[in-house]
Structures are given as C-alpha cells and as structure tokens.
Amino acid sequence: MSLVGGALEVGIGGEREVLLGFLSEHRRLLREIVLDLSDEEARRSLVPSLTTPMGLLKHAIFVDTAWFVCRFGGATRSEAGIPETVDESFTLEGADSLESLAARHEATVAAADQVIDRLGLDATCVHPAMGELSLRWVLTHCIRELAQHAGHAEILVEQIKAARSLTLT
Description:
With 169 residues, the protein is mainly α. It has helices spanning 15-34, 39-42, 53-72, 77-80, 98-117, 135-168, and strands at 2-4, 7-9, 124-127, 131-134. It has one domain (2-168): Up-down Bundle (Four Helix Bundle (Hemerythrin (Met), subunit A)), CATH 1.20.120.450. The longest helix has 34 residues, at 135-168. Pfam families: MST. InterPro entries: DinB/YfiT-like, MST-like.
C-alpha cells in the first residue's frame, strides 16, 4: 500500500495495512481541506448545527483521542484533554486556530497510532452503549466517520471559497 500523488493506492496489502492506509488518508484529507481557509473563514457557521470547518478538525482530534487513546489506551477523557460529549468536541475556544489545531491533530494521530501499533485487529474495547468492539470495527467506524466529515468539510470550504470570490469581484 502506498500513496501515489497524494492519493491512496489500494489493491495489495493485508487487512491491517488497508484499514490503516484508509484511516491515514482520511485524517490527512480532512486536515488539508480545512487548512485551505483563513482562521476567520474556518470558524464560519453555514449550517444550524455546531459544524464549522475548524470545528470538524477539532472533532477529528476528539475522535482519535476518544477511541484510541482513551478506549484502547486506558486514559480518561479528562487526562487526554478532550470533552466528555461529542457536541462539545465541535466547540471552538478563542485561542483555537487552524495552525494550533493542525499541530494538535498531528500529535493526536501520532499518539493514537502508538496505541494502534500495539494491538491486533481482534483486540477489544468496551463502549458504554455498544458493548465490546474490536479494533477492526473501530478502525472501520473511524474511516467512515472521517470520510463523512471530510465530505462535510469539502462542501463547507467550497461554499466559503465561492463567497470569497464573490466579494473579490
């Protein structure tokens, strides 16, 4: 499995390599899509939910931390520095910037990958509502979630860029 021109080349490799390749690709895509904006633009709310481009990046930090550092790694959310609820993970603080969140995202990915590297695909964690879940299931879930959020980010960024070009003309 390799990246060709920034895109994931899938076709050979074991199950673990394929899952980790897609997880890595969607993490990168979400970060890169959002980083194409200014901080002010990335804070813009275009939908009635808490979803903003910058909020999606902050939520991606929450996803990797909650699943891998906390559920599989044993840290509490408080110890890991993430909020208790999913909704709170989209909430932006005054000090949040694209630069700080991108750096935090990269550090979070590295910490999550350290946990993942120690586990087999059949390793399990316990989720309070869903029960026992395998690493294989959680990786697949995170791939789906990050792909979905990268799509959300892409649409929001496209709208923001369109509005930017209208104000320039």
